[in-house]
Design a protein that fits this description.
3 helices; globular; 112 residues; Lambda Exonuclease, Chain A; five-stranded mixed sheet
Length: 112
Amino acid sequence: MEVHRLLGCGFVEPVYQEALEKEFTLRGIPFEREKELNINYKGSALSKTFRVDFICYDKIILELKAVKEFTDEHYAQIYNYLRASRMDLGILINFGLSSIDFQRVPSSKKWR
């Protein structure tokens, strides 16, 4: 919320990502930025990987957006990240509005 309070809306996602990294560091929140994770298919790792914006506390995926509203594709993306990483919780954060929007996405939720 501090990042949005200071920067407001209107920037592209990488600006918020960098600011959030600085805020996590200042607050002592453990994180990994742009963590590369493998995708398994029928027991084998694919050569293609994916990168999550942040992993916090080694168990929460944060996916940042700077859009008018979340879409089904945003929810599907984080749900797939959760399933592929075997983590239990994802948080979508939208910096694209005048008020910050965020949604908790538990891995147990079945997405369409």
